C-alpha cells in the first residue's frame, strides 16, 4: 500500500524567519556546531535577549553575550529590536532560521563528487548525489535571497512497501523508464537547465522492523 505522498512546490521566502537555512561558510559551520551555540540557536526561534537566555541555559549573561556576538558575526542570528531599560539597552535577537543544514560547500576540499564513481545502485553514490543537491539548492537560495527572488523547485516525498526484492527492482526499472520518457518529451536544447534527482532507499524504521 502506498502511503500518502507529500508534494512540495516552494521558493525562498523573502521576509521573516526561514524554515531552513544552509550554512556554506566553513567558519559559520564551525561556530554552529558548538553545543552551547546550538542550544542558543534553538532558543532563539523566538526573539530573546542575553538576560533571558542566561536563565534558560544556566550560564552567566556575559558568557551568553559572548556566544551571541559570535553567532551574530557569522549571520546565524539577527537583531530584531533594541529596548531601553534605564541606563541599559537590551538587544532582542532572533535566529535567522528555525533549522540549519551545513552545505558540503563548507568542506569543499573533501566534498562528495557524484561524478567520481557513478553507480545508481550504490548507497554511497546516492549520498554523494544528495550532498550535491544540498550544495546546489543552498547556493541557489543564497543567490535568490541576495537578489530578492524566488527559486522555482519541486519535490515529492513518500513511502512504498515492496513485497520482494524482485518487485523493488521492477519498480526501479519502470520508474527509470517513466522518467526517461518525461525527459524526452519535455527536454528543450534552448531551455533553462534543471537538475533532476530521483531516489529510492529503505526507510529507517524498516530497519527496526527487520530486527
UniProtKB/TrEMBL annotation:
Pfam families: HTH_20
Protein name in UniProt: Transcriptional regulator
Organism the protein comes from: Paractinoplanes ferrugineus
Alphabetical list of SUPFAM superfamilies matching this protein: Winged helix' DNA-binding domain
Gene3D superfamilies the UniProt entry points to: Winged helix-like DNA-binding domain superfamily/Winged helix DNA-binding domain
InterPro entries noted in UniProt: ArsR-like_HTH (IPR011991), WH-like_DNA-bd_sf (IPR036388), WH_DNA-bd_sf (IPR036390)
Amino acid at each position: 500500500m502506498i502511503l500518502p505522498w507529500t508534494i512540495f512546490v516552494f521558493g525562498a521566502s523573502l521576509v521573516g524567519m526561514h524554515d531552513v537555512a544552509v550554512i556554506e561558510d566553513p567558519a559559520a559551520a564551525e561556530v554552529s556546531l558548538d553545543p552551547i551555540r546550538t542550544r542558543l540557536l534553538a532558543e532563539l526561534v523566538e526573539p530573546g535577549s542575553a538576560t533571558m537566555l542566561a536563565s534558560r541555559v544556566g550560564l552567566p549573561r556575559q558568557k551568553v553575550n559572548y556566544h551571541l556576538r559570535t553567532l551574530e558575526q557569522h549571520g546565524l542570528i539577527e537583531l530584531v529590536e533594541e529596548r531601553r531599560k534605564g541606563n541599559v539597552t537590551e538587544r532582542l535577537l532572533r535566529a535567522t532560521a528555525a533549522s540549519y543544514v551545513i552545505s558540503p560547500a563548507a568542506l569543499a576540499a573533501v566534498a562528495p563528487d557524484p561524478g567520481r564513481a557513478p553507480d545508481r545502485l550504490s548507497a554511497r553514490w546516492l549520498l554523494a548525489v544528495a550532498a550535491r543537491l544540498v550544495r546546489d539548492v543552498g547556493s541557489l537560495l543564497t543567490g535568490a535571497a541576495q537578489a530578492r527572488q524566488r527559486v522555482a523547485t519541486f519535490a515529492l516525498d513518500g513511502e512504498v512497501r515492496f513485497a520482494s526484492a524482485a518487485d523493488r527492482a521492477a519498480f526501479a526499472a519502470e520508474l527509470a523508464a517513466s522518467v526517461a520518457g518525461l525527459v524526452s518529451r519535455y527536454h528543450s536544447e534552448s531551455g533553462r537547465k534543471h537538475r533532476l534527482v530521483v531516489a529510492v532507499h529503505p526507510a529507517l524504521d524498516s530497519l527496526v522492523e527487520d530486527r
